[in-house]
Design brief:
Blueprint lengths: L1 H13 L9 H12 L1 H12 L8 H17 L3 E5 L10 E6 L6 E7 L14 E4 L2 E3 L3 H20 L7 E7 L9 H4 L1 H7 L4 E4 L8 E2 L5 E11 L15 H17 L6 E10 L1 E5 L4 E5 L8 E10 L2 H16 L5 E11 L6 H17 L5 E2 L18 E3 L6 E2 L7 E3 L3 H15 L3
Helix pairs in contact: 2-5, 2-11, 3-5, 4-5, 5-11, 8-9
Length: 430
């Protein structure tokens, strides 16, 4: 009885769309989506309650099997893309259909979450009549369900017959298998066969979409120095030690680079002492130190986030110059590792915003504009941004992504499904 009541609340409260300038066909799309909101919500609950942390291969595949069956109902043919065992990742779900009308769409989601099985469980729970919590409820099972519900509505109404669509739900977005040249090879190749990429990562709300995302890379700073009794610190013979040199470098990173727009760099771990060890595979370190011994070694690891490749390379050169200007008795090196590229803003991306804005206004839910690139982290869509026009942030909305209390905004959820369906419909008709 409680489940029925919640479903009715979900349907009644959220189905009132002011379809001001929609075609009769688009009004039918909205009506179908509203009618099937209870089943949509059930699908979301079912998959939220399955742990699919990136390293939980069984869990990722279980969610993938459920979504595969749902995408088959939408008229797509699904397959599982396996990855080499050495990557220790589950693989990816791909569903496709070929047509000869409109834009060829590449639709992006992911099956995994940041919540591994050893983390505290956070099953689906209604917090009030318009908010629920659960592991990955917005990032990004809510977005995956937006895709599925939109495509099923279009299929039921016979609006996908001539459409060309590839749905690609990766299994390791939160922690991509390395090297990404392997884990994203098929992803990139399929995207290159399409015209437009639609990313269903967490939405910033009804009125903001993403035309640009910052890329992410990593760096490791290694400092060595003379060691000896602390009474000699700062002297010509003993020098400054590794800890002072690492502090100088990090502070100069901050002074020289921290005010640049869209550029951030975060030292996430620092290990130093008279004896130290850093384990890159486990992302942890240990150290032993006495206050009367000058530290001979420090390791610092961090990330570097940027909007364009040019900004990334310029920042790296500045960081290298800072590292090279060593204090007496010390030596430092820095190594950089590429991660996810940036998704730079383009005219093609902006043209997609205009289309979405028109749909939002036609639906009567206000204007839609591009959000601040600095507010978005790296995502799978960035791997293909240089090949196709891209838009992201089309998924479910909510708060607290990557945190135990992650929530979904159920009030906006139906509108986001409706807009996604109309967007796919319009793009595949022209």
């Amino acid at each position: 009885m409680k489940k029925i009541f919640l479903a009715l609340c979900f349907l009644t409260v959220f189905s009132n769309v002011k379809a001001q300038n929609l075609s009769n066909t688009e009004k039918k799309i909205i009506a179908y989506i509203n009618q099937h909101l209870p089943e949509t919500k059930d699908l979301l609950i079912k998959t939220v309650n399955i742990n699919s942390g990136t390293l939980n291969i069984e869990g990722v595949k279980k969610v993938g099997a459920i979504y595969s069956a749902e995408l088959e109902k939408a008229g797509l043919k699904s397959e599982w893309i396996s990855l080499p065992d050495s990557l220790q990742r589950a693989g990816h779900l791909v569903a496709t259909k070929k047509g000869n009308k409109g834009k060829r769409l590449f639709i992006i989601g992911h099956l995994d979450t940041v919540f591994e099985p050893d983390m505290p469980a956070n099953p689906w729970k209604m917090l009030n009549d318009s908010t629920a919590t659960g592991q990955g409820v917005t990032d990004m099972k809510g977005g995956d369900v937006v895709v599925i519900a939109a495509l099923q509505a279009l299929k039921k109404l016979g609006l996908l017959d001539d459409a060309s669509i590839t749905v690609y739900f990766t299994g390791d977005e939160e922690r991509a298998g390395v090297p990404t040249s392997v884990s994203r090879k098929d992803f990139i190749e399929r995207a290159q066969q399409c015209d437009v990429a639609l990313g269903f990562e967490t939405a910033a709300g009804l009125n903001i979409v993403t035309t640009a995302r910052r890329g992410a890379s990593s760096w490791q700073l290694n400092v060595t120095a003379k060691t000896g009794h602390s009474q000699g610190i700062f002297s010509n013979g003993s020098g400054y030690g590794a800890i002072y040199e690492s502090a100088r470098i990090l502070n100069n990173f901050r002074l020289q680079l921290s005010t640049e727009k869209y550029l951030t760099f975060n030292p996430g771990l620092i290990v130093g002492g008279s004896e130290m060890h850093y384990d890159a595979d486990q992302a942890k370190g240990d150290a032993l130190g006495k206050t009367n011994i000058i530290s001979p070694a420090v390791t610092v690891v961090g990330d570097l986030r940027f909007l364009t490749e040019e900004q990334k390379e310029a920042a790296r050169e500045k960081m290298k110059a800072i590292v090279a200007n060593n204090l007496n008795g010390t030596k430092a090196t820095i190594n950089f590792t590429d991660g996810i590229p940036g998704m730079a803003p383009t005219e093609g991306n902006n043209s997609l915003v205009a289309i979405i804005d028109n749909i939002s206004q036609d639906m009567g839910i206000g204007r839609t504009a591009a959000g601040d690139p600095g507010s978005r982290g790296a995502g799978d869509i960035s791997y293909i941004a240089k090949y196709v026009d891209c838009i992201d942030g089309l998924g479910s909305s909510g708060k607290g992504a990557h945190a135990p209390g992650e929530t979904i905004n159920l009030k906006e959820f139906p509108y986001l499904i409706q807009r996604a369906a109309i967007l796919i419909y319009r793009l595949t008709q022209n």
